Amino acid sequence: MNCLYLCTGIMITENEQKRLEALVSLLDEPDDLAYLKIREQIFGFGKDALPGLEKTLENTFNPMIQERVGEIMQKIRHENLFQDLLDWARLGSSDLLKGYYLVTRSQYPEAVEHELIKQVEQLRMDIWLELNDNLTALENVKVINHILFEINRFEGNKINLNAPQNQYLNTLLESRKGSPLSLGMLYIILASKLNLPVYGVNLPQHFILAYLAETDIAEPTDDDVLFYINPFNKGAVFTRREIELFLRQMKVRTDRSFFAPCSHIDIIERLINNLIYSYTQLGYPDKITDLQILLKALR
Question: Is the domain of 130 the same as that of 238?
Fold first, then answer.
């Protein structure tokens, strides 16, 4: 509901806090129409209402209050997430890690951003220690592959490829198993932090990476690609020829975009679409609806 967008991130006043507490105390209202009015007023506090709602949820055994509090919290979090993702896209979407974290928050609202960043930073440091300015592009990739796939044991989850857990940042870092997209996103994030020109490539039914000839290319095309990387196959390096053969086997008409780097917004959009597919297979209509709404923040 639109009233949720009233949240500005400014701490509420003492009087507002007392009003919020009074409203939360009325969540056992038996009259449905009266409850809806109370709920709307709580929505108006946006994310400032969450601490009080969490406290109520922890301290009540009333199933009706638990259900109502859970519904309100979920709605506030979703609306807040939508706004955060919208801001990310409007501000240029340069930080892929931020975008990845935001989508992860759709399933894991308690995921702590700085803790996930810390884990990614440790991987970056491990790779950085093995790099030097004299390495070739292929040697840079060999170092990343060694740290990521041999030392830290990241791998593609080939047994349960379509599980939604393959897509989220926190579960990827914990289980070390992911999809072509999630592994590719982690690879891109690490390469970016190391100033290496690795970008995503949106292939049909697959996601691969492109290593460019130079860094800081404003609008890279397929002409700027030195070679391609398959993150789902432990960072195996291949050429344009292999993509052409793949497309031929898939009976997909060749398009130049299948060889060129894509934007971070394209990647996050694909991530959300992958999750929609996964939850469709599992039969979670509410999750599908929420993710479809999130997609609108990118368009």
Answer: yes
Q: What is the pTM of this model?
A: 0.87
Distance CA 183, CA 74 (A): 28
Residues 128 and 244 both lie in one domain: yes
Residue ranges, the chain, pLDDT below 70? 1-11
pLDDT of 5 reads: 34
Q: What is the pLDDT of residues 90-109, one digit of tens each?
A: 998 999 999 999 999 999 99
What's the domain range around 18?
2-90
For residues 116 and 242, membership in a common domain is answered with yes
User: Could you give the C-alpha distances from 237 to 14, 74, 182, in angstroms and in order?
Assistant: 60, 43, 18
Whether residues 174 and 57 fall in one domain: no
2 DSSP assignment? G
What is the distance between the alpha carbons of residues 43 and 79, in angstroms, rounded to a whole number? 10
- What φ, ψ does residue 50 adopt, rounded to 5°? -60, -45
- Determine the Cα–Cα distance for residues 21 and 49; give it in Å rounded to an integer: 9
Closest of 13, 22, 11 to residue 46, by C-alpha = 11
Where helices occur in the chain by DSSP H, the ranges are 14-24, 32-43, 50-59, 63-90, 96-105, 113-128, 137-145, 169-175, 180-193, 240-249, 264-282, 285-295
Which residue reads 């044991």 in tokens? 153
At position 25, the amino acid (one-letter code) is S
